[in-house]
Amino acid sequence: MNLLHGASTQGRGAFGFLRHHAGRASGTLVASLFAGGIAFVTAVVLARGLGPEGRGALAALMVVATLVIRFALLGTDEALVRVAAQPRYTQSSLLRFSVRFALAIGGLAAALFVVYEVLADSEDLVAALIVAIAIPASIYHVLLRSHLLGVGAVSWWNLTIWLQPALYFATLVAFTLTSSLELRTAVASFLGSSVVAAGITLVWVRRAATMRTRAAHGQDAAEREDVDPRAIVSFGSKLVGGRIASEVGGRLDLLALSWFASLDQLGVYAVASGLAIAPGGVLQAQANLSYSRMSRSGPDDFRAVCRREGRRLAALYLSIAVVGALAIGLVVDVVIGDDFADATAPARILFLGVAPFGLTMYQSAKAKAVGVPGVITIAEVIALAAAAPLIVYAASQESLEGTAAAVAFGYCVGAVGISLLMRRERDRLPESAPSS
């Protein structure tokens, strides 16, 4: 049992236990909703401040940078959650691993990003260099967030859901009010928000580590050992295959349009995509919460927990899909402006794709909880193989609606694929998640 979790729930009884976890769930929901709201208003500020061409140039930089960051992590962020949850490891060794990994692998990733931008004849190499500097800081921030989640500091982890987006939005607004929002100031805002967010999260990690040490009052510090970095990287590498397929599939539309379409068209599609994925923080946070509940359920109620979480997530995803598809036209007309009128149709298609995407996230959470993560990789690869040719073809025809439809088709294939794979595994699944 996690020490912070155990220390905070002892002696509360059944009602106190349920109230405690309801508080955690509502805290995560509120934080993710707030982050989604920030993502929405940030998309509006970027669209109105940069215009279609400037928004397209920013999207061309950030889609590559995001892929580089996700690949450079090598799955260590998920592995760190598992390792940090084990009291036998010293917190100082985990922090040393995080900073060394961010500097070494993040620095290499930043260099590769610059080389790519040079070869791709980037619109603004100075802006590309600024983004490259932000890559190690972003990797470090992700690892620190994983550290918080691993030690059970859910309240602080909830704060990190919206911390960097809020700092980014505040910096963008400051530039907009004091001077003007340009490509370089937009990427400088990203750099500054990443560095500050990493610094604040480090303070929270140290406080959480101190609380955990106090909670482990019966354990001698001499009994704890330094973590072996190779163990973290080795465990994380097992997750890389599924992550590559997932990340490429999730950003191939913007990447392909950056190759084939004009910056104006890319900017319009980036706004459509940004509006549609604004609820992404809500979806991911709730899926993580479901994964946690499934993993902690007992032998007698595992399947019941899965069914309950499935109904809860289905209601959430369907609500977002329907409301988003109906309201997006009004949002674009009233909030974004006429320059982005062509974003309405692709955004509506992408919102409808939220429903099958949500089903995939639910099945992925269940697969991880019962110890069959390979199912996720297979489903992600199948979805990518089905959607990639259609996405590239639609982008080559400069069809924004076609590109969005190809992405939504990939979501449907992924949802059907992982559902069938999990059905095949059903008879062999344990009644409860395997204990760690």
What fraction, in percent, of the residue positions are helical? over 70%
Class inferred from helices and paired strands: mainly alpha
Question: Approximately what portion of the residues adopt beta-strand conformation?
Answer: under 5%
The number of domains: 2
Question: So how many helices?
Answer: 16
N-to-C SSE series? HHHHHHHHHHHHHHHH
Description:
This protein has two domains: about 1-240, no CATH class; about 240-435, no CATH class. The chain starts with a helix and ends in an 11-residue tail after the last helix. The protein is about 85% helix and about 0% strand. The protein has about 425 residues and is mainly α.
SSE topology sketch:
Elements: H1 3-9, H2 13-72, H3 76-84, H4 91-119, H5 125-150, H6 154-178, H7 183-215, H8 229-237, H9 240-260, H10 263-277, H11 280-296, H12 302-336, H13 344-352, H14 354-369, H15 374-396, H16 400-425
Helix pairs in contact: 2-4, 2-5, 2-6, 2-9, 2-10, 2-11, 3-5, 3-8, 4-5, 5-6, 5-7, 6-7, 9-15, 10-13, 11-12, 11-14, 12-13, 12-14, 13-16, 14-16, 15-16
Concise description?
With 436 residues, this protein is an all-alpha fold.
Provide tags for this entry.
436 residues, mainly alpha, 16 helices, 83% helix, disordered C terminus
